[in-house]
Design a protein that fits this description.
six-stranded parallel sheet; 15 strands; about 20% strand; Rossmann fold; single chain; binds flavin mononucleotide; five-stranded parallel sheet; alpha/beta
């Protein structure tokens, strides 16, 4: 099939930036010699799907409603790529576009189930489903709705069994140049205009001077990313807190990076205060000096208690940081029983660290993927301590006991230096 793009244009009267998006899509198609047909989707869309499944059972492959929906299904089946141009509404497509896609896409799928990457899907009715690209327009910059929009397009693509997908969002303030840049990056299949390797910033949030567990976890991510062609630049939040120059270098590197991650210990149920102080300053810095482009961000929390639920609140804080600092949130990894991994590379723990390594690598993969992640990939992954609670507790107690032994004998773990004399014990 000769390459041909079907553009479902739900932008309506979207002003200069909307016009720039249309022009940029036409320009991209022309530059590749691809034919490109625009279909205007009215704000009311097609009459809603009735959920009767006739397109699978009574008239297989065709909707029973005899209207423009039939032509839309045919056009999608005959295209090599579908490009959605839409305002972003509640993080998703404009309702008119949703209505039209609900009507047009279902008939092009088969009713049967099949498993793809662990998730149930319907096979496509046709042997070569089109690629799917989504380009959204927002009034203001809003990384959370942009992230949601991109992940919805990824999920649509997986439902349609599209061989490739891409998505991006431009806001009105970014103007015509912003519109052209987003179209280029989305339709370019993530192929980067220059040949430089991906640049990722690793933020280390443990106040420990020599790394600790957070550094072990971060190092594992760094090794994986380096093995996949990225260049990783680590920065310590503790150092940035002490030194203005170090803060500036870190903030600048973050602005130019393609993505970032943060690894930190849980302190008193949250991100350590020293790290929060620097993260807050980073938010302010990035409000003044916006990053060069869209950037993904994930966080790794580790806690001393064996239950990874202790990482939930700190990871939720990281999600807020991502929103306020204009990163696309890729989710977090919460590692319970952090003490187990103290002092050695993560891989040296063999099967005991296998689940943690898998989770870290899954998040790292999102940073280097040219395609936006599906929503299911951006949730938090909680990894419990792999040892039975009693064993972990016994090891921890033994560790404290050993540390209590000074050269003058065992110190009193139960000492009460602030006990009020005469108060009942
Ligand atoms: C001041 C302080 C507060 C802590 N609070 C918690 C906590 O609330 N919950 C928890 O599970 N672990 C807590 N921990 C344990 C650390 O999260 C744990 O030791 C972690 O593995 C340290 O990581 P690091 O080596 O990267 O610094 C705390 C540790 C310190 C020093």
């Amino acid at each position: 099939m000769a390459e041909n793009w079907l553009v479902l244009d739900a932008l309506g009267a979207a002003g200069e930036v909307g016009e720039a998006l249309r022009k940029a899509v036409q320009g991209e198609a022309a530059s590749r010699g691809v034919s490109c047909r625009f279909v205007t989707i009215p704000s009311s869309g097609l009459p809603s799907c009735r959920g009767c499944f006739s397109c699978w059972t009574k008239t297989p492959g065709q909707c029973r409603l005899a209207d423009d929906g039939l032509g839309l299904s045919a056009s999608i089946a005959a295209s090599t790529a579908v490009v959605l141009l839409t305002p972003v509404v509640l993080g998703g497509h404009a309702p008119g576009l949703r209505l039209s896609m609900e009507r047009a896409v279902l008939p092009n799928l088969l009713p049967y189930f099949s498993k793809i990457d662990g998730r149930s899907r319907h096979p496509n009715r046709y042997p070569s489903p089109p690629a799917l690209y989504g380009i959204g327009l927002t009034v203001e910059r809003d990384p959370e709705s942009a992230g949601l929009f991109c992940s919805l397009v990824a999920r649509n693509a997986s439902n349609m069994r599209s061989p490739r997908h891409g998505a991006g969002v431009v806001c009105r303030a970014e103007g015509e140049a912003g519109a052209a840049a987003v179209v280029k990056s989305v339709l370019g299949d993530g192929v980067r205009p220059d040949a430089r390797p991906l640049s990722i910033v690793a933020l280390l949030g443990s106040p420990k001077p020599r790394g600790g567990v957070s550094a072990s976890l971060a190092n594992h991510v760094q090794a994986w990313l380096t093995g996949h062609g990225a260049v990783v630049r680590p920065f310590s939040l503790a150092a940035a807190r002490q030194d203005e120059e170090a803060f500036g270098a870190m903030a600048e590197a973050l602005g130019e990076a393609d993505g970032a991650y943060l690894s930190f210990p849980v302190y008193a149920d949250a991100i350590p205060g020293a790290a929060v102080e620097v993260l807050e300053r980073l938010c302010a810095y990035r409000r003044e000096i916006a990053p060069d482009g869209a950037q993904g961000f994930f966080a790794v929390a580790n806690c001393g208690f064996p239950e990874p639920a202790n990482c939930e609140a700190p990871l939720a804080m990281c999600r807020l940081f991502a929103r306020q600092a204009d990163f696309a949130w890729l989710g977090g990894v919460g590692v319970g029983g952090g003490g187990l991994y103290e002092g050695r590379p993560l891989s040296s723990f063999g099967f005991l660290s296998a689940a943690a390594r898998r989770a870290l690598e899954a998040k790292a993969a999102l940073l280097v993927s040219p395609m936006p992640p599906d929503l299911a990939q951006t949730g938090d992954i909680l990894i419990p301590c792999p040892l039975p609670d009693r064993v972990y507790q016994w090891m921890a107690d033994r560790g404290w006991q050993k540390a209590l032994g000074g050269k003058d004998g065992i110190r009193d773990a139960l000492a009460r230096p602030y006990a009020v004399p005469g108060a009942s014990s």
